[in-house]
Recover the amino acids of this structure.
C-alpha cells in the first residue's frame, strides 16, 4: 500500500486539510516531507503511522456516553 497524502487523509478521516497538517506539525501524527527541496511541504503518512495514530486516539476516548441536559419544566401561569 502506498503512503497517504494530506488530502487523502482529510477525506479518510473526515477532517479538514489544515487540521491534518496541524496534527502532523504538532508531532501527533508521524509524517515525512516528500519534497524536502521543494517550495511547499508535501507531507506523506505511512499506513503504519496512521494505524499507530488511530490506536493512540482510540484508547484516549471515553467509553461513557455524554450526559444530555434535561430541559427544566416551564412554569405556566394560567
Amino acid at each position: 500500500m502506498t503512503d497517504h497524502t494530506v488530502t487523502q487523509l482529510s477525506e479518510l478521516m473526515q477532517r479538514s486539510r489544515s487540521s491534518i497538517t496541524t496534527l502532523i506539525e504538532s508531532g501527533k501524527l508521524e509524517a515525512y516531507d516528500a519534497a524536502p527541496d521543494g517550495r511547499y511541504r508535501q507531507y506523506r503518512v505511512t499506513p503504519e503511522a496512521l494505524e499507530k495514530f488511530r490506536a493512540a486516539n482510540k484508547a484516549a476516548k471515553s467509553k461513557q456516553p455524554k450526559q444530555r441536559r434535561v430541559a427544566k419544566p416551564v412554569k405556566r401561569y394560567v
Observations:
- The chain has a mean pLDDT of 89.
- The longest strand covers residues 43-45.
